[in-house]
Amino acid sequence: MHTEFLMGNAAIARGAVAAGLNLIAGYPGTPSTEVLEAAAKENRGSFYVEWSVNEKAALELAAGASFSGARTMVTMKQVGLNVASDPLMSLAYLGVKGGMVILVADDPGPISSQTEQDTRTFASYSKLPLFDPSSVQEAYELVQEAFEWSEKYHTPVLFRPTTRIDHAYASTLVKDPSEYVHRTPEGFVRDPSKWVIFPRLSYQAHLRIAAREPELSREFSAYSRNYAASSKIDGQLSSSRFGIASHGISFSYTMDALKLLESEGVREASALSVLKITTPYPFPEELALAFLKEHDEILCIEELDPVIERALIFVAGKYHLNVTIRGKLTGDIPSAGENSVETAAKAIRTFLKLPEDFSGAPSPEGSALPPEEMPALPVRPPVLCAGCPHRASFYAVKQAMKGKKAVFCGDIGCYTLGNAMPLDMVDTCLCMGAGLNIAQGIGRIDPDTTAFAFVGDSTFFASAITGVVNAVYNQADMILVVLDNSTTAMTGHQPHPGTGRTMMGQVVDKIDIEAVLRGIGVKTIETVNPLDLEAAVSAVKRVSSVPGVRAVIFRSPCAVLVKPEAPAVIDPEKCINCRRCVRELGCPGLVIADGRVQIENALCTGCMLCKQVCPVQAIGKGGAK
Protein backbone atom coordinates (compact mmCIF):
# COMPACT_ATOMS: atom_id res chain seq x y z
CA MET A 1 0.00 0.00 0.00
CA HIS A 2 1.08 3.57 -0.63
CA THR A 3 -0.43 7.06 -0.60
CA GLU A 4 -1.23 9.17 -3.66
CA PHE A 5 -2.95 12.53 -4.08
CA LEU A 6 -5.93 11.63 -6.27
CA MET A 7 -9.08 13.16 -7.70
CA GLY A 8 -12.15 11.26 -6.52
CA ASN A 9 -12.92 9.94 -10.00
CA ALA A 10 -9.33 8.74 -10.39
CA ALA A 11 -9.53 7.01 -7.01
CA ILE A 12 -12.72 5.22 -8.09
CA ALA A 13 -11.04 4.10 -11.32
CA ARG A 14 -8.00 2.85 -9.40
CA GLY A 15 -10.27 0.95 -7.05
CA ALA A 16 -12.06 -0.72 -9.94
CA VAL A 17 -8.77 -1.71 -11.58
CA ALA A 18 -7.51 -3.07 -8.26
CA ALA A 19 -10.68 -5.16 -8.00
CA GLY A 20 -9.85 -7.00 -11.22
CA LEU A 21 -11.77 -4.95 -13.77
CA ASN A 22 -12.20 -6.70 -17.14
CA LEU A 23 -14.27 -4.12 -19.02
CA ILE A 24 -15.33 -0.51 -18.53
CA ALA A 25 -17.69 1.41 -20.81
CA GLY A 26 -19.61 4.64 -20.57
CA TYR A 27 -20.70 7.89 -22.12
CA PRO A 28 -19.03 11.17 -21.09
CA GLY A 29 -21.00 13.38 -18.75
CA THR A 30 -19.83 15.73 -16.00
CA PRO A 31 -19.13 14.87 -13.20
CA SER A 32 -18.50 11.22 -14.13
CA THR A 33 -16.23 11.58 -17.18
CA GLU A 34 -12.81 11.24 -15.55
CA VAL A 35 -13.55 7.76 -14.14
CA LEU A 36 -13.30 6.07 -17.52
CA GLU A 37 -10.45 8.30 -18.65
CA ALA A 38 -8.45 7.54 -15.48
CA ALA A 39 -9.10 3.82 -15.92
CA ALA A 40 -7.85 4.03 -19.52
CA LYS A 41 -4.60 5.58 -18.28
CA GLU A 42 -4.15 2.65 -15.90
CA ASN A 43 -4.77 0.07 -18.60
CA ARG A 44 -1.79 -2.12 -19.44
CA GLY A 45 -3.80 -4.38 -21.71
CA SER A 46 -5.57 -6.24 -18.90
CA PHE A 47 -9.06 -4.89 -19.63
CA TYR A 48 -11.18 -3.35 -22.39
CA VAL A 49 -12.21 0.31 -22.28
CA GLU A 50 -14.80 2.01 -24.49
CA TRP A 51 -16.60 5.29 -24.94
CA SER A 52 -19.90 3.86 -26.13
CA VAL A 53 -22.30 5.69 -28.42
CA ASN A 54 -24.63 6.28 -25.43
CA GLU A 55 -25.35 4.97 -21.93
CA LYS A 56 -27.78 2.30 -23.12
CA ALA A 57 -25.16 0.81 -25.41
CA ALA A 58 -22.55 0.92 -22.64
CA LEU A 59 -24.80 -0.91 -20.18
CA GLU A 60 -25.80 -3.60 -22.68
CA LEU A 61 -22.15 -4.13 -23.65
CA ALA A 62 -21.21 -4.53 -19.98
CA ALA A 63 -24.12 -6.91 -19.46
CA GLY A 64 -22.83 -9.23 -22.18
CA ALA A 65 -19.37 -9.21 -20.66
CA SER A 66 -20.80 -9.84 -17.20
CA PHE A 67 -22.82 -12.81 -18.53
CA SER A 68 -19.42 -14.17 -19.57
CA GLY A 69 -18.05 -13.85 -16.02
CA ALA A 70 -16.21 -10.52 -16.40
CA ARG A 71 -16.08 -7.79 -13.80
CA THR A 72 -17.50 -4.72 -15.49
CA MET A 73 -18.12 -1.07 -14.75
CA VAL A 74 -20.43 1.36 -16.55
CA THR A 75 -20.02 5.12 -16.06
CA MET A 76 -22.52 7.93 -16.59
CA LYS A 77 -24.07 10.97 -14.93
CA GLN A 78 -27.52 10.99 -13.38
CA VAL A 79 -29.41 12.00 -16.53
CA GLY A 80 -27.52 9.30 -18.43
CA LEU A 81 -29.21 6.75 -16.19
CA ASN A 82 -32.48 7.72 -17.86
CA VAL A 83 -31.02 6.61 -21.20
CA ALA A 84 -29.78 3.34 -19.70
CA SER A 85 -32.94 2.63 -17.69
CA ASP A 86 -34.58 0.36 -20.28
CA PRO A 87 -31.92 -2.38 -20.16
CA LEU A 88 -31.23 -1.68 -16.48
CA MET A 89 -34.75 -2.49 -15.31
CA SER A 90 -34.70 -5.84 -17.13
CA LEU A 91 -31.13 -6.57 -16.02
CA ALA A 92 -32.24 -6.13 -12.41
CA TYR A 93 -34.51 -9.13 -12.98
CA LEU A 94 -32.11 -11.17 -15.11
CA GLY A 95 -29.06 -10.66 -12.89
CA VAL A 96 -25.36 -11.00 -13.69
CA LYS A 97 -22.50 -13.47 -13.30
CA GLY A 98 -19.41 -11.30 -13.08
CA GLY A 99 -19.62 -8.32 -10.75
CA MET A 100 -21.17 -5.24 -12.37
CA VAL A 101 -20.88 -1.77 -10.86
CA ILE A 102 -22.97 0.97 -12.48
CA LEU A 103 -21.44 4.29 -11.51
CA VAL A 104 -23.96 7.12 -11.66
CA ALA A 105 -22.54 10.50 -10.66
CA ASP A 106 -25.22 12.73 -9.19
CA ASP A 107 -24.93 16.49 -9.45
CA PRO A 108 -26.54 18.38 -6.54
CA GLY A 109 -26.79 22.05 -7.28
CA PRO A 110 -27.05 21.28 -10.12
CA ILE A 111 -23.63 22.43 -11.25
CA SER A 112 -23.56 21.11 -14.82
CA SER A 113 -26.82 19.24 -15.38
CA GLN A 114 -30.44 19.64 -16.41
CA THR A 115 -31.83 18.00 -13.26
CA GLU A 116 -31.09 17.21 -9.62
CA GLN A 117 -32.50 13.70 -9.78
CA ASP A 118 -31.37 11.42 -6.98
CA THR A 119 -30.05 7.98 -7.93
CA ARG A 120 -30.89 6.73 -4.43
CA THR A 121 -34.55 7.05 -5.40
CA PHE A 122 -33.86 5.20 -8.66
CA ALA A 123 -32.27 2.39 -6.63
CA SER A 124 -35.53 1.85 -4.78
CA TYR A 125 -37.46 1.98 -8.06
CA SER A 126 -35.18 -0.54 -9.78
CA LYS A 127 -34.71 -2.64 -6.61
CA LEU A 128 -30.93 -2.54 -6.96
CA PRO A 129 -28.43 -2.18 -4.09
CA LEU A 130 -26.75 1.22 -3.94
CA PHE A 131 -23.45 2.36 -2.40
CA ASP A 132 -23.00 6.03 -1.44
CA PRO A 133 -19.37 7.03 -0.62
CA SER A 134 -18.67 9.90 1.78
CA SER A 135 -15.03 10.63 0.90
CA VAL A 136 -12.40 10.00 -1.75
CA GLN A 137 -10.76 7.32 0.39
CA GLU A 138 -14.05 5.58 1.02
CA ALA A 139 -14.94 5.76 -2.68
CA TYR A 140 -11.68 3.94 -3.51
CA GLU A 141 -12.37 1.20 -0.98
CA LEU A 142 -16.11 0.98 -1.45
CA VAL A 143 -16.03 0.39 -5.20
CA GLN A 144 -13.92 -2.72 -4.61
CA GLU A 145 -16.42 -4.00 -2.06
CA ALA A 146 -19.28 -3.20 -4.46
CA PHE A 147 -17.93 -5.77 -6.94
CA GLU A 148 -17.98 -8.38 -4.19
CA TRP A 149 -21.56 -7.58 -3.19
CA SER A 150 -22.59 -7.74 -6.86
CA GLU A 151 -21.16 -11.23 -7.27
CA LYS A 152 -22.47 -12.45 -3.94
CA TYR A 153 -26.05 -11.59 -4.93
CA HIS A 154 -25.66 -11.93 -8.73
CA THR A 155 -27.02 -8.44 -9.27
CA PRO A 156 -25.82 -5.19 -10.77
CA VAL A 157 -25.17 -2.60 -8.07
CA LEU A 158 -25.36 1.18 -8.28
CA PHE A 159 -22.47 3.33 -7.11
CA ARG A 160 -23.37 6.96 -6.43
CA PRO A 161 -20.60 9.50 -5.97
CA THR A 162 -21.65 13.15 -6.24
CA THR A 163 -19.80 16.11 -7.74
CA ARG A 164 -18.00 17.00 -4.50
CA ILE A 165 -16.63 13.44 -4.27
CA ASP A 166 -15.92 13.07 -7.99
CA HIS A 167 -13.94 16.29 -8.29
CA ALA A 168 -12.40 16.47 -4.82
CA TYR A 169 -8.71 15.74 -4.33
CA ALA A 170 -7.36 13.87 -1.31
CA SER A 171 -4.36 11.89 -0.13
CA THR A 172 -5.56 8.36 -0.74
CA LEU A 173 -4.13 5.08 0.51
CA VAL A 174 -4.12 2.75 -2.49
CA LYS A 175 -2.92 -0.76 -3.26
CA ASP A 176 0.31 -1.54 -5.06
CA PRO A 177 -0.16 -3.26 -8.45
CA SER A 178 1.11 -6.49 -6.89
CA GLU A 179 -1.96 -6.46 -4.63
CA TYR A 180 -4.49 -6.16 -7.47
CA VAL A 181 -7.02 -8.91 -8.12
CA HIS A 182 -6.46 -10.65 -11.47
CA ARG A 183 -9.44 -12.41 -13.03
CA THR A 184 -9.85 -14.54 -16.13
CA PRO A 185 -13.55 -14.76 -17.08
CA GLU A 186 -14.72 -18.27 -17.89
CA GLY A 187 -16.66 -17.11 -20.96
CA PHE A 188 -20.32 -17.32 -21.85
CA VAL A 189 -22.07 -20.51 -20.83
CA ARG A 190 -25.29 -21.03 -22.76
CA ASP A 191 -28.33 -21.22 -20.49
CA PRO A 192 -31.56 -19.82 -22.03
CA SER A 193 -33.42 -20.43 -18.77
CA LYS A 194 -31.15 -17.87 -17.12
CA TRP A 195 -30.21 -15.32 -19.79
CA VAL A 196 -33.44 -15.09 -21.82
CA ILE A 197 -36.07 -12.93 -20.14
CA PHE A 198 -39.57 -14.41 -20.48
CA PRO A 199 -42.64 -13.44 -18.45
CA ARG A 200 -42.49 -16.60 -16.37
CA LEU A 201 -38.78 -16.05 -15.68
CA SER A 202 -39.52 -12.45 -14.73
CA TYR A 203 -42.18 -13.55 -12.27
CA GLN A 204 -39.74 -15.90 -10.54
CA ALA A 205 -37.02 -13.24 -10.60
CA HIS A 206 -39.37 -10.74 -8.97
CA LEU A 207 -40.00 -13.21 -6.15
CA ARG A 208 -36.25 -13.68 -5.67
CA ILE A 209 -35.69 -9.92 -5.56
CA ALA A 210 -38.47 -9.52 -2.98
CA ALA A 211 -36.84 -12.21 -0.83
CA ARG A 212 -33.40 -10.64 -1.30
CA GLU A 213 -34.37 -7.20 -0.02
CA PRO A 214 -34.87 -8.09 3.67
CA GLU A 215 -31.75 -10.28 3.58
CA LEU A 216 -29.67 -7.43 2.23
CA SER A 217 -31.24 -5.06 4.75
CA ARG A 218 -30.07 -7.32 7.57
CA GLU A 219 -26.60 -7.67 6.09
CA PHE A 220 -26.31 -3.93 5.53
CA SER A 221 -27.28 -3.36 9.16
CA ALA A 222 -24.10 -5.21 10.13
CA TYR A 223 -22.00 -3.70 7.32
CA SER A 224 -19.15 -1.72 8.82
CA ARG A 225 -19.71 1.27 6.53
CA ASN A 226 -23.16 1.79 8.05
CA TYR A 227 -22.86 2.76 11.69
CA ALA A 228 -24.12 4.88 14.57
CA ALA A 229 -21.57 6.67 16.71
CA SER A 230 -20.95 9.84 18.67
CA SER A 231 -19.87 12.91 16.76
CA LYS A 232 -16.30 12.12 17.75
CA ILE A 233 -16.61 8.72 16.03
CA ASP A 234 -15.54 6.73 19.09
CA GLY A 235 -17.85 3.86 18.27
CA GLN A 236 -20.29 4.50 21.10
CA LEU A 237 -23.75 6.02 21.09
CA SER A 238 -23.92 9.18 23.16
CA SER A 239 -26.36 9.82 25.96
CA SER A 240 -27.99 12.69 24.04
CA ARG A 241 -31.59 12.19 23.03
CA PHE A 242 -30.88 14.13 19.84
CA GLY A 243 -29.26 12.52 16.79
CA ILE A 244 -28.37 13.16 13.17
CA ALA A 245 -28.73 10.82 10.19
CA SER A 246 -26.68 11.49 7.07
CA HIS A 247 -24.96 9.97 4.06
CA GLY A 248 -22.35 10.52 1.35
CA ILE A 249 -20.62 13.89 1.20
CA SER A 250 -23.32 15.31 3.52
CA PHE A 251 -21.97 13.02 6.24
CA SER A 252 -18.53 14.60 5.82
CA TYR A 253 -20.12 18.06 5.95
CA THR A 254 -22.00 17.05 9.10
CA MET A 255 -18.88 15.87 10.89
CA ASP A 256 -17.02 19.06 9.95
CA ALA A 257 -20.00 21.14 11.08
CA LEU A 258 -20.03 19.39 14.46
CA LYS A 259 -16.32 20.10 14.91
CA LEU A 260 -16.96 23.72 13.98
CA LEU A 261 -19.76 24.01 16.53
CA GLU A 262 -17.63 22.35 19.22
CA SER A 263 -14.88 24.89 18.54
CA GLU A 264 -17.46 27.63 19.05
CA GLY A 265 -18.31 26.24 22.47
CA VAL A 266 -21.58 24.48 21.54
CA ARG A 267 -21.33 21.67 24.08
CA GLU A 268 -24.47 20.02 22.76
CA ALA A 269 -22.70 19.30 19.46
CA SER A 270 -20.20 16.98 21.12
CA ALA A 271 -23.06 14.97 22.62
CA LEU A 272 -24.89 14.38 19.34
CA SER A 273 -24.73 10.91 17.83
CA VAL A 274 -24.68 10.33 14.09
CA LEU A 275 -26.17 7.57 11.96
CA LYS A 276 -24.18 7.08 8.75
CA ILE A 277 -26.03 5.43 5.86
CA THR A 278 -23.72 4.17 3.12
CA THR A 279 -26.29 1.77 1.64
CA PRO A 280 -29.58 3.67 1.40
CA TYR A 281 -31.12 0.77 -0.49
CA PRO A 282 -31.95 -1.75 0.76
CA PHE A 283 -32.16 0.35 3.90
CA PRO A 284 -30.38 -1.07 7.00
CA GLU A 285 -33.56 -1.30 9.05
CA GLU A 286 -32.18 -3.07 12.14
CA LEU A 287 -29.39 -0.53 12.55
CA ALA A 288 -31.85 2.32 12.09
CA LEU A 289 -34.26 0.80 14.60
CA ALA A 290 -31.57 0.62 17.28
CA PHE A 291 -30.64 4.23 16.58
CA LEU A 292 -34.23 5.45 16.71
CA LYS A 293 -34.85 3.74 20.05
CA GLU A 294 -32.02 5.79 21.58
CA HIS A 295 -33.37 9.18 20.52
CA ASP A 296 -36.32 11.53 20.78
CA GLU A 297 -35.49 13.69 17.76
CA ILE A 298 -33.51 12.99 14.58
CA LEU A 299 -32.30 15.52 12.02
CA CYS A 300 -31.70 14.07 8.53
CA ILE A 301 -29.02 15.97 6.60
CA GLU A 302 -29.05 14.71 3.03
CA GLU A 303 -28.93 15.59 -0.67
CA LEU A 304 -31.22 15.55 -2.74
CA ASP A 305 -34.40 13.57 -1.99
CA PRO A 306 -35.53 12.85 1.60
CA VAL A 307 -34.55 9.19 1.18
CA ILE A 308 -33.19 8.62 4.70
CA GLU A 309 -35.90 10.76 6.25
CA ARG A 310 -38.67 8.74 4.63
CA ALA A 311 -37.00 5.46 5.55
CA LEU A 312 -36.69 6.49 9.20
CA ILE A 313 -40.32 7.63 9.29
CA PHE A 314 -41.31 4.22 7.92
CA VAL A 315 -39.24 2.36 10.53
CA ALA A 316 -40.57 4.55 13.35
CA GLY A 317 -44.13 3.92 12.22
CA LYS A 318 -43.61 0.21 11.71
CA TYR A 319 -42.34 -0.24 15.28
CA HIS A 320 -44.61 2.43 16.85
CA LEU A 321 -41.73 4.57 18.09
CA ASN A 322 -42.41 8.03 19.52
CA VAL A 323 -39.60 9.89 17.78
CA THR A 324 -39.64 13.16 15.86
CA ILE A 325 -37.83 13.02 12.52
CA ARG A 326 -36.83 16.27 10.85
CA GLY A 327 -35.34 17.05 7.46
CA LYS A 328 -36.50 18.12 4.04
CA LEU A 329 -40.13 17.12 4.61
CA THR A 330 -40.33 19.38 7.67
CA GLY A 331 -38.46 22.28 6.06
CA ASP A 332 -35.42 21.93 8.32
CA ILE A 333 -33.18 21.10 5.32
CA PRO A 334 -33.53 22.86 1.94
CA SER A 335 -35.53 20.81 -0.55
CA ALA A 336 -33.13 21.54 -3.44
CA GLY A 337 -29.47 22.28 -4.00
CA GLU A 338 -26.32 20.92 -2.43
CA ASN A 339 -25.35 21.03 1.22
CA SER A 340 -22.17 22.48 2.71
CA VAL A 341 -20.46 22.63 6.08
CA GLU A 342 -22.08 26.01 6.64
CA THR A 343 -25.62 24.88 5.78
CA ALA A 344 -25.18 21.77 7.94
CA ALA A 345 -23.97 23.88 10.88
CA LYS A 346 -26.92 26.25 10.46
CA ALA A 347 -29.39 23.34 10.42
CA ILE A 348 -27.81 21.79 13.51
CA ARG A 349 -27.96 25.13 15.36
CA THR A 350 -31.67 25.35 14.58
CA PHE A 351 -32.15 21.70 15.55
CA LEU A 352 -30.53 22.39 18.92
CA LYS A 353 -32.70 25.51 19.24
CA LEU A 354 -29.67 27.82 19.34
CA PRO A 355 -29.65 31.31 17.81
CA GLU A 356 -27.92 31.35 14.41
CA ASP A 357 -25.19 33.68 15.64
CA PHE A 358 -24.65 31.78 18.89
CA SER A 359 -21.05 31.18 19.92
CA GLY A 360 -20.19 29.87 23.36
CA ALA A 361 -16.54 30.73 22.82
CA PRO A 362 -15.31 33.92 24.53
CA SER A 363 -15.08 36.85 22.10
CA PRO A 364 -11.54 38.18 21.60
CA GLU A 365 -10.83 41.70 22.79
CA GLY A 366 -11.71 44.42 20.32
CA SER A 367 -14.11 42.22 18.36
CA ALA A 368 -17.26 44.20 19.07
CA LEU A 369 -17.63 44.99 15.39
CA PRO A 370 -18.82 42.15 13.15
CA PRO A 371 -16.12 40.60 10.95
CA GLU A 372 -15.83 42.09 7.49
CA GLU A 373 -18.11 40.31 5.06
CA MET A 374 -16.55 38.48 2.15
CA PRO A 375 -17.07 40.30 -1.15
CA ALA A 376 -19.59 38.79 -3.52
CA LEU A 377 -18.11 36.60 -6.21
CA PRO A 378 -18.24 38.08 -9.71
CA VAL A 379 -21.02 36.81 -11.93
CA ARG A 380 -19.47 34.78 -14.73
CA PRO A 381 -22.13 33.42 -17.06
CA PRO A 382 -20.96 30.63 -19.36
CA VAL A 383 -20.12 31.76 -22.88
CA LEU A 384 -19.01 30.19 -26.16
CA CYS A 385 -15.23 30.32 -26.45
CA ALA A 386 -13.53 32.91 -28.63
CA GLY A 387 -13.29 31.44 -32.12
CA CYS A 388 -15.95 28.78 -31.43
CA PRO A 389 -17.43 27.70 -34.79
CA HIS A 390 -20.85 27.31 -33.15
CA ARG A 391 -21.06 31.10 -32.82
CA ALA A 392 -20.59 31.41 -36.57
CA SER A 393 -23.16 28.67 -37.22
CA PHE A 394 -25.83 30.30 -35.09
CA TYR A 395 -25.10 33.71 -36.58
CA ALA A 396 -25.36 32.38 -40.14
CA VAL A 397 -28.78 30.84 -39.46
CA LYS A 398 -29.91 34.02 -37.71
CA GLN A 399 -28.91 36.14 -40.70
CA ALA A 400 -30.46 33.76 -43.23
CA MET A 401 -33.79 33.70 -41.38
CA LYS A 402 -33.96 37.43 -40.58
CA GLY A 403 -37.53 38.66 -40.95
CA LYS A 404 -38.95 35.13 -41.21
CA LYS A 405 -40.93 33.15 -38.66
CA ALA A 406 -38.62 30.47 -37.28
CA VAL A 407 -38.08 28.43 -34.12
CA PHE A 408 -34.67 27.19 -33.01
CA CYS A 409 -34.73 23.95 -31.02
CA GLY A 410 -31.49 23.38 -29.17
CA ASP A 411 -29.78 20.47 -27.49
CA ILE A 412 -27.35 19.54 -24.72
CA GLY A 413 -23.72 20.57 -25.24
CA CYS A 414 -21.57 23.64 -25.80
CA TYR A 415 -24.12 24.88 -28.27
CA THR A 416 -26.73 25.27 -25.51
CA LEU A 417 -24.82 28.50 -24.84
CA GLY A 418 -26.24 29.83 -28.09
CA ASN A 419 -29.26 30.86 -25.99
CA ALA A 420 -27.28 33.76 -24.49
CA MET A 421 -27.45 37.28 -25.85
CA PRO A 422 -26.62 38.55 -28.35
CA LEU A 423 -27.09 35.32 -30.34
CA ASP A 424 -30.39 34.36 -28.64
CA MET A 425 -30.68 31.28 -30.85
CA VAL A 426 -31.93 28.50 -28.53
CA ASP A 427 -35.70 28.52 -28.01
CA THR A 428 -36.02 25.03 -26.48
CA CYS A 429 -33.67 22.58 -24.78
CA LEU A 430 -34.90 19.41 -23.09
CA CYS A 431 -32.41 16.55 -23.23
CA MET A 432 -29.91 14.97 -25.60
CA GLY A 433 -31.36 14.51 -29.08
CA ALA A 434 -34.78 15.91 -28.14
CA GLY A 435 -34.52 19.01 -30.34
CA LEU A 436 -35.17 16.95 -33.46
CA ASN A 437 -38.49 15.63 -32.25
CA ILE A 438 -39.52 18.89 -30.56
CA ALA A 439 -39.02 20.69 -33.89
CA GLN A 440 -41.26 18.11 -35.55
CA GLY A 441 -43.95 18.63 -32.91
CA ILE A 442 -43.88 22.41 -33.27
CA GLY A 443 -44.03 22.06 -37.05
CA ARG A 444 -47.16 19.87 -36.86
CA ILE A 445 -49.04 22.44 -34.80
CA ASP A 446 -47.57 25.63 -36.32
CA PRO A 447 -46.83 24.79 -39.98
CA ASP A 448 -46.10 28.43 -40.84
CA THR A 449 -42.98 28.30 -38.66
CA THR A 450 -39.67 27.13 -40.12
CA ALA A 451 -38.49 24.66 -37.48
CA PHE A 452 -34.76 24.20 -36.95
CA ALA A 453 -33.16 21.54 -34.75
CA PHE A 454 -29.53 22.04 -33.71
CA VAL A 455 -27.44 19.06 -32.61
CA GLY A 456 -23.73 18.41 -32.13
CA ASP A 457 -21.80 15.65 -33.85
CA SER A 458 -21.36 13.55 -30.70
CA THR A 459 -25.02 13.93 -29.73
CA PHE A 460 -26.03 13.06 -33.29
CA PHE A 461 -24.54 9.61 -32.81
CA ALA A 462 -25.67 9.30 -29.18
CA SER A 463 -29.37 9.99 -29.50
CA ALA A 464 -30.40 11.98 -32.56
CA ILE A 465 -30.35 9.43 -35.39
CA THR A 466 -33.69 7.92 -34.40
CA GLY A 467 -35.21 11.43 -34.48
CA VAL A 468 -34.08 11.82 -38.10
CA VAL A 469 -35.59 8.43 -38.94
CA ASN A 470 -38.85 9.53 -37.33
CA ALA A 471 -38.85 12.79 -39.30
CA VAL A 472 -38.20 11.13 -42.67
CA TYR A 473 -40.66 8.29 -42.07
CA ASN A 474 -43.45 10.64 -40.96
CA GLN A 475 -42.78 13.24 -43.69
CA ALA A 476 -41.92 16.11 -41.35
CA ASP A 477 -41.03 19.60 -42.55
CA MET A 478 -37.92 20.69 -40.65
CA ILE A 479 -34.26 21.64 -40.95
CA LEU A 480 -31.61 19.70 -39.06
CA VAL A 481 -28.45 21.66 -38.29
CA VAL A 482 -25.50 19.47 -37.30
CA LEU A 483 -22.77 21.44 -35.53
CA ASP A 484 -19.80 19.22 -36.35
CA ASN A 485 -16.70 20.32 -34.43
CA SER A 486 -15.08 16.85 -34.55
CA THR A 487 -15.18 16.13 -30.82
CA THR A 488 -17.28 15.85 -27.65
CA ALA A 489 -16.29 19.32 -26.50
CA MET A 490 -18.44 20.03 -23.45
CA THR A 491 -17.11 17.11 -21.41
CA GLY A 492 -13.44 17.34 -22.36
CA HIS A 493 -12.96 16.34 -26.01
CA GLN A 494 -13.64 12.63 -25.91
CA PRO A 495 -13.70 10.68 -29.21
CA HIS A 496 -16.94 9.53 -30.84
CA PRO A 497 -17.82 7.52 -33.99
CA GLY A 498 -17.18 10.52 -36.23
CA THR A 499 -13.62 11.18 -35.03
CA GLY A 500 -11.92 8.08 -36.42
CA ARG A 501 -10.37 6.85 -33.18
CA THR A 502 -11.47 4.81 -30.16
CA MET A 503 -10.67 4.98 -26.46
CA MET A 504 -8.41 1.94 -26.94
CA GLY A 505 -6.25 4.08 -29.23
CA GLN A 506 -7.32 2.41 -32.48
CA VAL A 507 -7.56 4.43 -35.69
CA VAL A 508 -10.80 3.41 -37.40
CA ASP A 509 -12.99 4.53 -40.29
CA LYS A 510 -14.97 7.64 -39.46
CA ILE A 511 -18.74 7.34 -39.54
CA ASP A 512 -19.74 10.02 -42.04
CA ILE A 513 -22.73 12.06 -40.86
CA GLU A 514 -23.74 13.10 -44.36
CA ALA A 515 -23.67 9.49 -45.54
CA VAL A 516 -25.79 8.44 -42.55
CA LEU A 517 -28.36 11.14 -43.34
CA ARG A 518 -28.50 10.13 -47.00
CA GLY A 519 -28.89 6.50 -45.98
CA ILE A 520 -31.86 7.43 -43.81
CA GLY A 521 -33.44 9.26 -46.71
CA VAL A 522 -32.57 12.93 -46.26
CA LYS A 523 -32.14 14.20 -49.83
CA THR A 524 -31.24 17.89 -49.35
CA ILE A 525 -27.96 18.24 -47.42
CA GLU A 526 -25.47 21.11 -47.48
CA THR A 527 -22.05 20.85 -45.82
CA VAL A 528 -20.28 24.16 -45.26
CA ASN A 529 -17.63 25.83 -43.11
CA PRO A 530 -19.54 28.21 -40.78
CA LEU A 531 -16.53 30.55 -40.56
CA ASP A 532 -17.14 31.39 -44.22
CA LEU A 533 -20.11 33.59 -43.37
CA GLU A 534 -21.33 34.34 -46.90
CA ALA A 535 -21.24 30.67 -47.92
CA ALA A 536 -22.90 29.60 -44.67
CA VAL A 537 -25.77 32.09 -44.98
CA SER A 538 -26.33 31.10 -48.62
CA ALA A 539 -26.43 27.40 -47.69
CA VAL A 540 -29.08 28.00 -45.03
CA LYS A 541 -31.18 30.06 -47.45
CA ARG A 542 -31.02 27.35 -50.11
CA VAL A 543 -31.97 24.61 -47.68
CA SER A 544 -34.79 26.62 -46.12
CA SER A 545 -36.37 27.20 -49.53
CA VAL A 546 -37.24 23.53 -50.08
CA PRO A 547 -39.79 21.44 -48.16
CA GLY A 548 -39.39 18.23 -46.20
CA VAL A 549 -36.57 17.03 -44.00
CA ARG A 550 -33.31 18.70 -44.97
CA ALA A 551 -29.99 19.32 -43.27
CA VAL A 552 -27.10 21.73 -42.99
CA ILE A 553 -23.82 20.35 -41.64
CA PHE A 554 -21.62 23.12 -40.28
CA ARG A 555 -18.16 21.54 -40.17
CA SER A 556 -15.29 23.30 -38.43
CA PRO A 557 -13.07 21.93 -35.63
CA CYS A 558 -13.43 23.04 -32.03
CA ALA A 559 -11.29 26.13 -31.40
CA VAL A 560 -9.57 24.34 -28.51
CA LEU A 561 -8.32 21.57 -30.80
CA VAL A 562 -6.59 23.69 -33.44
CA LYS A 563 -3.59 25.97 -33.31
CA PRO A 564 -4.90 29.55 -33.29
CA GLU A 565 -4.18 31.85 -36.19
CA ALA A 566 -2.74 35.33 -35.72
CA PRO A 567 -5.24 37.51 -33.84
CA ALA A 568 -7.37 40.02 -35.70
CA VAL A 569 -6.41 43.68 -35.67
CA ILE A 570 -8.61 46.78 -35.78
CA ASP A 571 -7.62 49.72 -37.95
CA PRO A 572 -8.42 52.74 -35.75
CA GLU A 573 -8.58 54.97 -38.82
CA LYS A 574 -11.38 52.90 -40.38
CA CYS A 575 -13.25 51.88 -37.22
CA ILE A 576 -16.38 54.01 -36.68
CA ASN A 577 -16.95 52.46 -33.22
CA CYS A 578 -20.41 51.23 -34.21
CA ARG A 579 -19.76 48.16 -32.05
CA ARG A 580 -21.73 45.91 -34.39
CA CYS A 581 -19.15 43.17 -33.95
CA VAL A 582 -19.66 43.22 -30.17
CA ARG A 583 -23.45 43.61 -30.30
CA GLU A 584 -24.06 40.82 -32.79
CA LEU A 585 -21.40 38.22 -31.96
CA GLY A 586 -20.72 38.47 -28.23
CA CYS A 587 -17.23 37.03 -28.70
CA PRO A 588 -15.04 37.29 -25.57
CA GLY A 589 -12.14 38.21 -27.86
CA LEU A 590 -13.86 41.53 -28.57
CA VAL A 591 -13.70 43.96 -25.64
CA ILE A 592 -14.46 47.61 -24.94
CA ALA A 593 -11.49 49.54 -23.57
CA ASP A 594 -11.20 53.31 -23.30
CA GLY A 595 -14.58 53.57 -24.97
CA ARG A 596 -13.57 51.74 -28.14
CA VAL A 597 -13.68 48.15 -29.45
CA GLN A 598 -10.40 46.32 -29.11
CA ILE A 599 -9.10 42.81 -29.73
CA GLU A 600 -8.10 40.75 -26.69
CA ASN A 601 -5.03 39.11 -28.21
CA ALA A 602 -4.77 36.45 -25.50
CA LEU A 603 -8.21 35.11 -26.46
CA CYS A 604 -8.54 35.82 -30.19
CA THR A 605 -8.00 32.73 -32.37
CA GLY A 606 -8.00 34.59 -35.66
CA CYS A 607 -11.25 33.01 -36.91
CA MET A 608 -12.06 36.36 -38.59
CA LEU A 609 -15.82 36.11 -38.17
CA CYS A 610 -15.78 39.65 -36.82
CA LYS A 611 -14.01 40.82 -40.01
CA GLN A 612 -16.94 39.52 -42.04
CA VAL A 613 -19.45 41.31 -39.80
CA CYS A 614 -17.72 44.70 -39.75
CA PRO A 615 -19.64 47.11 -42.04
CA VAL A 616 -16.59 49.28 -42.83
CA GLN A 617 -13.93 46.55 -43.14
CA ALA A 618 -11.97 47.96 -40.21
CA ILE A 619 -10.92 44.50 -38.97
CA GLY A 620 -8.12 42.61 -40.66
CA LYS A 621 -5.70 39.75 -40.18
CA GLY A 622 -2.80 40.38 -37.83
CA GLY A 623 0.78 39.19 -37.96
CA ALA A 624 2.16 35.87 -36.77
CA LYS A 625 0.96 34.64 -33.38
In summary, what is this structure?
It is built from 21 helices and 22 strands.
Any descriptors?
625 residues, alpha/beta, Rossmann fold, six-stranded parallel sheet, five-stranded mixed sheet, 21 helices, 16% strand, globular
> Strand percentage, roughly?
15-25%
* Number of DSSP helical runs: 21
- The level-1 CATH class of the largest domain: Alpha Beta
CATH superfamily of the largest domain: Thiamin diphosphate (ThDP)-binding fold, Pyr/PP domains
Radius of gyration: 28 Å
CATH architecture term of the largest domain? 3-Layer(aba) Sandwich
Give the spatial strand order of the biggest sheet.
Answer: 3-2-4-5-7-6
Output the CATH topology of the largest domain. Answer: Rossmann fold
Average predicted confidence as pLDDT: 91
Shape, please?
A: globular
Number of domains: 4
Secondary structure: helix percent: 25-40%
DSSP strand count? 22
Largest sheet: 6 strands, parallel
- Straight-line N-to-C gap: 48 Å
- Model regions low in confidence, pLDDT < 50 over at least 5 residues: 232-237, 360-371
Oligomer: single chain
